[in-house]
Amino acid sequence: MRHIGRRYPDRHVPIITGVSAGAINALHLAAFRGNLEEATTDLEGQWRSLTTGQVFRSDPLTVLRTGIVWGYTLLSGGSRLGPRARSLVDTEPLRHFLRHAVDPRGIEENIRDGFLRAAAVSATSYQTGQTITFVHGDPSLSMWERPHRRAVRDRLTVEHVMASSALPLLFPAERLDGHFYGDGSIRQSAPLAPAVHLGADRILAVSARYERNAEEARHPVVQGYPPPAQVMGLLFNSIFLDTLDADSVRLDRINDLLERCGDGGDPGKAFRRIELLLLRPSRDLGQLASEYADRLPRILRYLAGGLGSREGRTADFVSYLLFEESYLSRLMELGEEDATAQWERIEAFLDWGPPQST
């Protein structure tokens, strides 16, 4: 996004959706009062300033207290006499950081000025099991309901982002309107659907999944019995990465079917052709995280090591906890390198014409 902003500084993206960590980017870009270059530059600065301590408390005393509570919860047999474990870490520092980094009131102003049509973030209701997409957009937009997922109108806040990015068990659930919500990727079977329902005819989606070739896929990432860190990394990847791949394949099949039927060009039809550009990293982010795992706070590095995070060639589980400037900067550099390498493809997809100058 930073690279696109530099190429097309005066552009605005009319529909912005995000889930999990992507909800942070979505809220920032939708609320920023400025053009795309200014928005992405500011977003870059916010990520560069982030540290693990600004996401969750990781001091030894807090970790020890959490361990005691979890131990009591597991051994209490359901007793309500003592405190019950809610999460492995406390993310109040992230709430504090976001409140200083983003002013959600800018979303309404951008909608009023015609720069934005809608912004949406998704979260999972732990009480109903539904994926709820919270939509802050033009009043003319219609909401939708499908099995296990629905949309509701709301004014997006930092609390919606906290809910959407609440990693299951690791981060605490967020309470919204009397319900507790967790990460929006947990049951989101159709991550492209919010943009489709909001009227997008082309979608630029950014995935964190590196697409391994057949030779790479044949080589095991860990030898012997898989350690807990490997299992947890696979579980997280299935939640956060697999559904986007499956949904993109589904969209391609629908587009192909519409083309074969000669019925893909009328936006008034129940089904319409939607162009998709799915961008992926050119490196395995789990392997990249393993190069920076020693930057974790000491107590987290020690605990992750106990789970077997050093036993494999990748550190997928660690990548979900790694919020250090050196790693985040490398991710952004990789993203810009990939955007540069694929620029002709990106530019043709955006179809925004010659770059504008400020």
Explain what you see.
This protein is of the alpha/beta class and 358 residues long. Helices cover 44% and strands 13% of the residues. Strands 1, 2, 3, 4, 5, 6 and 7 form a seven-stranded mixed β-sheet that branches. The protein has a two-stranded parallel sheet with strand order 8-9. A hairpin with a 2-residue loop joins strand 6 (174-176) and strand 7 (179-183). Helix 2 (21-31) runs antiparallel to helix 7 (158-164). The longest helix is centred in the C-terminal third of the chain and has 20 residues, at 242-261. The radius of gyration is 21 Å and the shape is globular. The model has no long low-confidence stretch (mean pLDDT 89).
Number of strands: 9
CA-based shape: globular
Beta fraction = 5-15%
* Major β-sheet profile: 7 strands, mixed
The helix-and-strand class reads: alpha/beta
User: What is the share of helical residues?
Assistant: 40-55%
Unreliable runs, pLDDT <50, ≥5 residues? Answer: none
The string of secondary-structure elements, in order, is: HEHHHHHEEEEHEEHEHHHEHHHHH
Which value, in Å, is the CA radius of gyration? 21 Å
Q: How much is the average pLDDT?
A: 89
For this structure, the quaternary state is single chain
**Distance from first to last alpha carbon:** 17 Å
Q: How many helix segments?
A: 16
Architecture blueprint of SSEs:
Elements: H1 2-7, E1 15-19, H2 21-31, H3 36-48, H4 60-75, H5 92-101, H6 105-112, E2 118-125, E3 131-137, E4 145-146, E5 149-153, H7 158-164, E6 174-176, E7 179-183, H8 193-197, E8 202-206, H9 214-218, H10 228-240, H11 242-261, E9 275-279, H12 285-290, H13 298-306, H14 316-319, H15 325-341, H16 343-350
Parallel strand pairs: 1-2, 3-5, 8-9
Antiparallel strand pairs: 2-3, 2-7, 4-5, 6-7
Helix pairs in contact: 2-7
